[in-house]
Design goal:
160 residues; two-stranded antiparallel ribbon; 4 strands; 49% helix; elongated
Length: 160
């Protein structure tokens, strides 16, 4: 029996829990605005809008779901005028999440490898459907492609 080894595979937390998302409301948008200035360029960008924002931008966002991390960054950017300061906020991790880290290797049979591949693929589809085709979905797609390449390579090694 051939086994698949996933040495040094990166751990990635992918979740589609309802608690991981925020629905954009007018109150939410107003809470991120500064009086007289509105929303800054980076706030528009993380909400998936171009800058300057098109007419009707507020209504186009109401009801859409964004990650809690994006919502927290949107609020944190309120009133931050210097691009350097905004860049610092955008690069920070929120919710105490830690960067990806290496883990121990695991050994899977060929059948287990294929099941894992299918589960990852299904979870990815759920996540992308929840995010839509936005800037926010690009990093998810990149992580997914990396994982799928590793899984496909490992599965190929188990075939005689």
């Amino acid at each position: 029996m051939n086994n698949t080894s996933f040495d040094d595979m990166e751990t990635v937390k992918l979740s589609t829990s309802e608690n991981d998302f925020v629905v954009i409301t007018e109150d939410f948008l107003v809470s991120g605005m500064t009086s007289g200035c509105g929303i800054n360029k980076d706030q528009f960008k993380i909400l998936g809008l171009e800058y300057p924002a098109p007419k009707g931008w507020k209504q186009s966002l109401i009801g859409k779901r964004i990650s809690k991390e994006t919502a927290e960054k949107f609020i944190a950017l309120k009133g931050v005028h210097k691009p350097k300061d905004r860049s610092s906020i955008l690069s920070q991790e929120t919710n105490g999440t830690k960067p990806l880290k290496k883990t121990e290797s695991i050994n899977l049979t060929h059948r287990e490898s294929i099941i894992l591949y299918q589960l990852v693929k299904n979870e990815y589809c759920n996540i992308v459907a929840a995010l839509g085709n936005t800037e926010e979905s690009k990093p998810v797609k990149k992580i997914y492609n990396t994982i799928m390449d590793k899984l496909e390579g490992a599965i190929a090694k188990t075939i005689d």
